[in-house]
Amino acid sequence: MAANMQGTRIRVGMAAVSDESLHAPAGWRAIYVWSGIGAFWLLFSGYIFAAWILGGHAHTTLTGVTPVPASMKFNAVFWQSFLGLISAILFYFFVVRGWRREGRLPLYGMLYIAAQSMWWQDALLNFLSPVFSYNSILVNWGSWNASVPGWVSPNAEKMPSPVLLYLGLYPVFFCGATVALVALMRRIKVLWPHISNFKLVSIMFVALGLFAVAAEATWLRTGMYTYIGLYSPVSLWPDQAYKVPVISVFFLDSLVLTLLACLIYYRDDKGQTYVERGSEHLQAGFKVGTMRCLAMIGAANTILFVCYNIPMNYLAIIGPGWAPAVLEKSYFTNGVCGDGSDYACPGGAVPPAIGPHQIHIGPDGRIVVPPGAELPTLVKSKND
Questions:
Q1: H or E element: which one contains 303?
Q2: Contacts of residue 39, Cβ cutoff 8 Å, sequence gap at least 6
Q3: Does residue 273 contact residue 358 with C-beta atoms inside 8 Å?
Q4: What pTM does this model have?
């Protein structure tokens, strides 16, 4: 009878579990938790996109009255095309060829798909107050921001969300760059085999921060986007559209990429990342592959949401305001705030507007009282 124990089921209390599960490692449920989180992010973003499209809100945001310089038009075409090409190459090598070689979706293929699942979050830093904007010369159909439950800042549907740019940018930045970082970490470990994990991660974090500042400073000059309203204790060119919020870029951009690189680099003896642990206890096939991919989606989206968008929203509500160099360009304001809208761009002494039905300050400094709202009247304190 003892020789026939494998595969039997044992009663523990009221639950029936297999004897294999009893000997599973402590972290064996990670795959269930993280695949559930990934499924949540996919369903949540799917709801947002469906509400945006089916609600009839997908309309192109035009550049407005300000002429767009020829250099910006060239940059828009070049970067959307170039990043799209690189993304297609990554898709072939990481997803298509990887699947053919391994007979399943490989780790880097899952990372590519996870990166593509992240771009719904791109403008969440404007959730409480508009401090960031894309140039509406980029291919766009407005934005799904207004369909995000609880969204606060007004005219969210008018901010251009450049889907064509996202399809190239996110896989290149969050997949391609992460793979390169993992390769670099392995090289450093070969050169200095006794380096501690703390030193290795610290080196990568600082190097990434410096690279992120240099990269943002270069790319902001193309005129594709602006961080003009975002708070940062240290900024380069703070009154220009190509303002670089040094501290937030150094710490937050670096933090997200460092965590993604660590997730891929530090794997167990089975080659599994932390979020895949326990998948060996599942029957091989489509189900386990789907759960592994969902787990990677869950980790990537959670890292971006917690480590980037939450702190960015705090920096947004204490921002310095929009400089005239940006306010005078309709392809940056896009009717979200400033001229052509009913709202002053927030920051400094101008409080963020909370929804379309609240009393707020107009772009000319007057108080705007929407229909149905009333100015407060003085109610004197009782003195009897």
A1: helix 286-304
A2: 294, 298
A3: no
A4: 0.89
